[in-house]
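Why does this matter for the project? Reviewers at the last site visit asked to see concrete outputs rather than summary tables. In response, this paragraph embeds two records directly. Each consists of the residue sequence and, immediately after it, the corresponding structure tokens. Nothing has been edited or filtered.
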Amino acid sequence: MDRDSHVLYGSFDSDYVTITRGDGVYVYDDAGNRYLDAVGGVCVVNIGHGVREVIDAMNEQAAGIAYTYGGIVDNEPRRRLARRLQEWAPPGMGHTRTLFCSGGAEANEGALKLAYQYHRERGNPTKRKVIGRWQSYHGNTAATLSMSGRTPWRSVNSPILLDFPHIPPPYCYRCPWDQTYPSCGLTCAGELRRVVRQEGAENIAAFIAEPVIGTSMSAVVPPDEYYGIVRDICDEYDILFIADEVMSGVGRTGKRWAIEHWGVTPDIITSSKGLAGGYSPLGALILGEKVWMAIADGSGRVSHSTTYGGNPLSCAAGAAVLDYIEEHGLVRRAGEMGDRLIAALEEALLDIPYVGDVRGMGLFAGVELVADKETREPFPVEWDVGHRVEADALRNGLLVLAGVTGLVDGVAGDHIELVPPYVIEDEHVEFIVSTLRDSILRVCANAARG
């Protein structure tokens, strides 16, 4: 620990590498060492570092006006980006309206509040709870952590969390019911109906889910029928479906929004991270037509706003990132390179006795680490295997992300996440896979020996 620092870091036991610049898929530290950024910062840098078109757009905007308060006046970049997100929205959402903010937690908190307002405007004020899933993550505010199912982070804040129900995730590798797809009949999806009935549909405003589960489970992809069943249950009980696309959206999975892989339309999409590619903090709350129309036809006033929401500099960056993605065909490329990355991971890692599962969709991949491949027994939590693999890879020039432990039972379970920029090449895939394999073998073999 650097006792001379005035920064409150996340860990007092860690030494943090100081990154000074980036170029494409690489970042460089203050000693000149190069690292392949296979996590895009933290699933943020999607088009690569140092893209001149985005930098120029931001410079031009800053030279005009960098900030306006959206509660009093409007600005052109906000309108432009909202129009672009209408073009990107799934067709079933109709005429969308977008509320901008600074990040994913803000977007999901806004979704909670506006889902409640939607029901209140329609004469259903008791519909205030949101159902989430265990081993999910929607943000680190009190409200979004209440919706989340990340037990290690919930436990330390439990006295201040809201009383929101949760259901198990669609986690076929470790099915909570010891069933096998497809003979299981999608018990995991049907659990939503059971919890709605148990809680009382008159009390449930929304169901929130990451279409591809993020850092709490590292790229768990549900069975094909899952979201169709979820959509039907939400419609049956007048519940809004919120797709948390903070990580999986903006092209990462090979479609504009991950939920589109299942042909399902959400009522609300939340986005951040890759929306401005890391060039400026930006989040978005995209409301389907039926949601915002209920508010427009009711009170006519939106009961949520943020200071930096819709600021022109961030919105100019977001519009430039979307333009760059489209001009360079990066949504399709993310799908193609993701197929190559996941195939290479499967070929190189699944024969390792410490790798239980390789999974993902597009450039959103996860590797689950186990102490015993046959029984799927996780490593002891105190061994902190995931973060040791992360640190070893860093020493060898590769940035990977250790997912938060707890994916097995809320306590144990180590996993590694890979969410690189869409502009990676085959040579980068080879380096990612070979370096990660070596790190897993070194760390896990040493851990197993004690």
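We now turn to the second protein, recorded in exactly the same manner.
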Amino acid sequence: MSIDRDEAVGSIPFSEALGVLRAAAEETRLRILALLAEGELSVSDLTDILGQSQPRISRHLKLLVEAGLVERHREGAWAFFRRSEARAGLADPLLSELDRTAPPLSEDRARLDAVRAQRAETAQTFFARLAPKWDELRSLHVPEATVEAAVLDALGERSLGSLIDLGTGTGRMLGLLAPRATRATGLDSSHAMLSVARANLERQGLARVDLRQGDIHAPPFARASFDLVVVHQVLHYLDDPARALRGAARLVAPGGRLLVVDFAPHDLEFLRTGQAHRRLGFSADQVSGWLAEAGLATVSTHDLAPRESGQLTVTLWLAQEAGVHQVGVGHDAAQPRRAVA
């Protein structure tokens, strides 16, 4: 049975295909493509791994970007590169057949492992300085494992599709959810926190998660581009959480969902000075109202009440497009809101 070329899915013009193949048909560029198949890397990473000068590596990357094989994005003063999905159909068959157990690819992989180990050590050192504050905050509410179990329960067993975690921090939500997503992205304003997230995700074997630096109030992504948007423990740091939720709602694809996790109202004022919290929690109606203003309907809320007096209640809000209904989903009556003592 013949296939009509006009009906071929994913076909590209002959001239573009030729340009892609020419770009890949050079030793250093092919080695770069093999490395980027393992996850995103900076120019500095590639310089260390390949043992070539920064200008030379930059020229090769420029050609690969122009051919559509590689994507570039900035993270502060840094530039990171990753394999482009747009031309994966051409490049992947070749890359999958390469013998990575023999030089030069085996040597490149060994140096890549060394770069990742150094990155993990640097990230761990940075996080160790923050750990006392994080540990103090974690002690004020139910265990992280309980929150994560509630997140998985709220989302159900269906495929997550394309996922973005806004304000990803250390990448904990990505580590939990990315294995169930077809595509996973994390956004954070801090290069240092993204470095921690990158090291954590690599340690979990999730090196191909896309991490971007950007403003949660104005995410640099196309409208309706994600099936699941997560805003986990972020709103209480923001001056304008309603604006952040409007930006998050803009990213939700038709039939998609937005999950918000944050604290219920409390009176622990020391968190303003000790942990840089701008808001002391949010009521269920307050967040649901902001979601409604952003065009989303809250389909469920769930409170994780503290075990001890003086601890914080964690609330989960799950929302989707207004007018889209889920059977059997509503306010979780089994977990009534409790006042924080």
